[in-house]
Amino acid sequence: QGPPPVTRYNLNKVTVTADPVKNKEHILILTPMARFYQEYWDNLLRLSYPHELITLGFILPKTKEGNQATSLLQQQIQKTQNHGPEKDRFKSIIILRQDFDPAVASQDEKERHKMGNQKARREVMAKARNSLLFTTLGPSTSWVLWLDADIVESPPTLIQDLASHDKAIIVANCFQKYYDPDTKKMAERPYDFNSWQDSENALKMAEQMGPDDILLEGYAELATYRTLLAYMNTVGGDKNLVQPLDGVGATALLVKADVHRDGAMFPAFSFYHLIESEGFAKMAKRLGWQPYGLPNYKVYHYNE
Ligand code: GDP
Ligand code: MN
Fold this sequence. Notes:
Layout (H helix, E strand, L loop, with lengths): L25 E7 L5 H8 L8 E7 L3 H20 L8 E6 L11 H4 L5 H19 L4 E7 L3 E3 L4 H6 L5 E12 L4 E6 L5 E2 L2 H8 L19 E2 L14 E2 L7 E5 H5 L14 H11 L4 E11 L3
Parallel strand pairs: 1-2, 1-4, 2-3, 6-12
Antiparallel strand pairs: 4-11, 5-12, 6-7, 6-11, 8-9, 10-12
This protein binds guanosine-5'-diphosphate and manganese (II) ion.
The site of manganese (II) ion (MN) has 3 residues, from loops.
């Protein structure tokens, strides 16, 4: 018996390119999950990116709802990894149970989005994302795709489409479908307001804040006059249009793993008066990585 083996990885041999399929680049899909939605899982299975290059990572709270979601998730994993067709099986799957409580007891949309709940909620989300990231990022990971558990519609080519722009950080535009009682038809509206370009107004507001205070987007009480990715969308607009951003949401966000390796994470505290994914964008920018968004490339959020 020889000495214990040493595994060496040359990070400069891990490529990150606009054609990740051809270059067999490994991707880590990370999802904080409070609830399990079958549509989310079905979309993962439909991803046309080679599944043997995909590692899935989940973090779930240890609440009653979190336990329920964990067992539904595990059932689907069993089915796919042990019984499903070989080509559907993912390289590996990691499930973490969170060692801290969620910020709000109720996961209802109305309760989640109350302004008074935002700071505590985004702090917890930031910690959950960081735990997940720091326990799963491996030496051969080229890309990290942040994909929320309640994204119920996304294209099978999501990874290739986002990667084709060869940006360090790129986010899809997250909308929501709903029934419009006036027209009696299904319609859609913007959902995620965390992707934006900064404004003089927001910067001035931040200047006047206390050190622990944070700016929130999408609340009338805090009119920032930022330019939101949500409203850069145009009907029939070019799906490949890219816009530089200062803040990003993490509902469907592709990040070159090197951005995270450089130290960009999700601040669970006021960082330039920003928190979580918006704070991440700021930290990445300070490290020299420019975030981008795709106004006309949409994914859809569940509607309660
Ligand atoms: P919203 O869409 O902006 O209201 O944010 P969500 O509440 O949907 O949270 C974003 C993502 O994190 C979703 O995938 C949720 O399922 C998940 N999530 C929400 N709260 C928690 C939590 O306390 N712990 C964990 N691990 N995940 C959570
Ligand atoms: Mn959500």
